[in-house]
Amino acid sequence: KVNEKMRMAPMAKRLAELLKQPVNTVGDCIGADVDASVAKLNAGDVLMLENTRFYAEEEKNVTEFAQKLAKNAKVFVNDAFGTAHRAHASTEGVTKFVDHKVAGFLLQKEIAFLKGAVDAPKRPFAAIVGGAKVSTKIPVIESLIEKCDKIFIGGGMIFTFYRAMGLNVGKSLVEEDFIPMAKQLMEKAAAKGVKFILPTDVVVASEFKADAQSKNVSVNDIPADWLGLDIGSASLENFKAELKGCKTVVWNGPMGVFEFEQFAKGTFGVAHALADITDAGGITIIGGGDSVAAVAAAKLDKRMSHISTGGGASLEMLEGKVLPGVAALDDA
């Protein structure tokens, strides 16, 4: 189904600016119009095809559609790390019908950093996992427990862990169904000798608003009608102290609601700690999603070793999964 807002014309315009040459466009990605446009190309000319997602066959990875996509190609370069965890026609299916299928420079860099962090990290190796829900991060936390020396937990998910510890969390976000799993993760980390670090204090708010009343309290003293929206000041200092000296740090997910200024201190504080680690020669990897936005908001993106362009793809790679879009390429 065609979505006018998702057409490739703006991308073609920007690519032309970057290449300093015209970029031709065509209103489809398969079929007679594409064949005709390709036939007109001279050596060095560039043609941008239309968005493959306008066809349902793209996400279903239909073989016939992939074959049509590949019809005019001899070499396939995949540089879309953000979709490499999906086996779609344009990421995986098309590779079966071209002579050469290779990684682009960005994909190569993503694999080098993320796979390197998982397979052979410089130690001590720490992971910082944040975000609102523990349910979305369980597989990556489980995997990191097998590989890390220290795991730091922040964001809304901490309250599910506190509930697993028998604490009252007021009106903070809790995933009731995942309380037993949170308990298991803590036990698993302890059994492996992995330091599992939760905040000892939090910033709580009277309501979920940028200008809400707020105060810093111990995790043992969260008021019944308040909700936690950031890690506390003592916890931030403890996180910084525990991170100091780490040689590899992977960060996925903010420490609090950093979009609201008064609940951004934890997230920005961690970002500054990572920037210092990079400056000291350590490897810092920002694993996609909201952490990337947070690092950019803190204006520290230039002081990180690697900022991943993929949310789901980064998580799956950190879990040690093989990404279909990568597995389909030729071995280097």
Beta-strand proportion: 15-25%
Gyration radius, in Å: 23 Å
Q: Provide a count of the helices.
A: 13
H/E order of the elements? HEHEHHEEHEHEHHEEEEHEHEHEHH
Quick one: overall form? elongated
* Beginning-to-end CA distance, first to last residue: 37 Å
Secondary structure class reads alpha/beta
Q: How many strands in all?
A: 13
CATH class of the largest domain, named Alpha Beta
| Uncertain stretches | none
Structural summary, described in words:
By secondary structure, this protein is α/β, with parallel strands linked by helices. It has helices at 9-19, 32-39, 56-60, 63-70, 105-119, 138-145, 158-164, 179-192, 233-243, 265-279, 290-297, 312-318, 324-327, and strands at 24-25, 47-48, 75-78, 100-103, 125-129, 150-153, 195-197, 201-205, 214-218, 227-231, 248-252, 283-286, 306-307. The protein has 2 domains: 6-108, Rossmann fold, CATH 3.40.50.1260; 123-281, 3-Layer(aba) Sandwich (Rossmann fold). The chain contains 13 helices and 13 strands. The protein has a 6-stranded parallel sheet, sandwiched between helices. The protein has a 3-stranded antiparallel sheet with strand order 9-8-10. The protein starts with 8 loop residues before the first helix and ends in a 5-residue tail after the last helix. It catalyses: (2R)-3-phosphoglycerate + ATP = (2R)-3-phospho-glyceroyl phosphate + ADP. This is Phosphoglycerate kinase. Belongs to the phosphoglycerate kinase family. One of its GO terms (molecular function) is phosphoglycerate kinase activity.
